[in-house]
Amino acid sequence: MKIEIINTGAELMLGRILNSHQQWLCRQLADLGLTVARQVAVDDSGPAIVQAVRDALPVDLILVTGGLGPTSDDRTRTLIAELLGRKLHEDSSVVAHIEAFFAARKKRMPTSCRVQAQVPNGALVLSNAHGTAPGLVLELPVGADRPGLGCLILLPGPPRELRPMFTNQVVPIIKERFPNRERFGCRTLKTTGLGESVIEEKIAASLEPLVREGLEIGYCARIGEVELRFTARGTRADELIRHAEKIAYEKLRDRIYGTDDEDIESIVIRTMTENRLSLAVAESCTGGLVCHRLTNVPGASAVLKAGYITYSNGAKQETLGVRPETLATHGAVSEAVVLEMAAGARARAGTDFAVSVSGIAGPAGGTRDKPVGTVWMGLADAEKTVAQRCFNPYDRETFKLVASQQVLDLLRRHVLARAMAPAAQ
Amino acid sequence: MKIEIINTGAELMLGRILNSHQQWLCRQLADLGLTVARQVAVDDSGPAIVQAVRDALPVDLILVTGGLGPTSDDRTRTLIAELLGRKLHEDSSVVAHIEAFFAARKKRMPTSCRVQAQVPNGALVLSNAHGTAPGLVLELPVGADRPGLGCLILLPGPPRELRPMFTNQVVPIIKERFPNRERFGCRTLKTTGLGESVIEEKIAASLEPLVREGLEIGYCARIGEVELRFTARGTRADELIRHAEKIAYEKLRDRIYGTDDEDIESIVIRTMTENRLSLAVAESCTGGLVCHRLTNVPGASAVLKAGYITYSNGAKQETLGVRPETLATHGAVSEAVVLEMAAGARARAGTDFAVSVSGIAGPAGGTRDKPVGTVWMGLADAEKTVAQRCFNPYDRETFKLVASQQVLDLLRRHVLARAMAPAAQ
What is the ipTM of this complex? Predict the structure, then answer.
């Protein structure tokens, strides 16, 4: 079973646009139990597209994206028809669809659009609910041992046209053509606070028996976190993954903050919402990023009452009540200041929790005792204030992202502890 | 001249991660006058990587990303060495670098990390300023007609390691190896506030003579902005682009906020710093994103004194002095409230300027009169307060991004007007 994706477009090869099709299509196919063997991006000129299809043969399924539009640089349809020795004809249902598309928008249909109704003989037409260019399904010559299995599907380039077309029309075709797909399981555990080599040290030996039975382990270091991925195939896939997940939780405990597509801010908002806990945030070096991440979560307003971006010492004093002598004695990046910031934010906003962060993002501002990358963060609730120091010697934007992750993780662990404690408030 | 990019990783083929390397590397190479012929993504298992390199030959330059880390699924280094018939040895300077990397972070070096010091014989080592895995440059066998030209460069997967390594170490190698590149010029004008078809209507006719001489025009609609791109090749490239740029500025005026990789927040911080102007920000629906974007700019602390994330009505009253009757009469998303927010933030922080924003990000919270996507923003300086209403009916994160762009553009235009006014303060 061999699947390839071919993405076409000059803008891809000039680096003017991010190719989001690869991830999206690979993910959809993986969820169907199918793995893409290779993805290729080429210029939309003739030779490159045709060569890419030739290189892929023999193949069970090729998905080609882009080059179906109305302008002169959209050549995929014609080139593929030529390569497969098919003549083109005008499909009257596609003409009617394009005319209706423009009529609904009260716009004149440019003559050039009619070229999109040209269909290679024998092709199946996939209607486009969000645009004018239809998708096309063509049979491919494959090896004599697998006659009639190969399939080439042309999809339009714009994601909002491609995605529903794939989900609604291509997935049923794939399911029908490849009925005996092997069960594929994939589970991602999202961790923070440990490096990937440390994680491997902690879990590898215990997982070894499962690996011998077919479990695959992947490690992916992202900014401020490491993703640990378990995949397996076949009838025992789910069992192997469940078992691996259990071992990982035993070894890594609360270093795992979530699974699959969860992010730490969603988990914080969800846990605090469920426990009716409110939050205030006082940020210096992260400059609003902690609040920004939290407010990306729908429903954040039930939790986050106020944020204070106290970038200057003056604002730390005026807004949060940090004492001038604390700033003078310890400096703005210090345990004493983040504790006063957290307590001040909590008092001002009248919330259950407050977190605070102050550090040196750089590139300037570092000293011998407090080099660029130094960051203090604090947390206050009704019973206590706590602080922790981290060191993130990275570029400015990475520093902010890692520091925001550490603040959210500090909050997550305290909120979880509170949520799991007996009802004593 | 043939260049290929090979991106490796199971997480790519399973669709768990977006491949940002393709765009970034293609863009950097295009700026050097080099076009990538093909980009391929494959699984990080042995046969696929080796096959991808074989398929690329003969070739002048191959860039391979990923698979240089310390974990068991990082196999690129060994596989490529095998393919090229090179033995590996431990490079003592790389060992020293890895040890120093962990020592600087006061962390123990896991034994597994040492594998990253394995270097194929004859390879040039590229030091990694932001991680442990070095890059590697290897000579390739190419066609007999072009001996010694081929070059394979292995780069680490994490973008914050790959990007500076490419810019600082790979670009000089490429320039030396390929000295006779055709002049390639590319200029991007960044606009906000106009759609791409409106921009085309305004400029296309005037640019037509330049297009006949070889100018290429590209339009790229991004979130909250449109990039207008001029490219040309050959000895007249720069002249054509300069001429096109002059015409674009005449037609689009202050709708162009910057060029190439400038962003609007950098321009705001730079202009305000030069004019010694200070700023406070009051955010509701954008939840910290305006402050986050401004504080991504090094030196932002000279301008931004305080930010107030007043997500709740209580915080709007308590922190910014918005009157309860204004909230009751007009609602939190209204002209009256953003004017009071801006004035309140400016008074509280004692700054020259303040901006404010309040809107309905959704998915919930819309009404018939104020549907999801409605947003008001305000600005206050010593002489006036102004407000504007926008409508951004998008998903939550897009809404926040577009609204933050509109706030920053409102500020940019007022700051520019102030900066260009006669010295009357």
Answer: 0.79
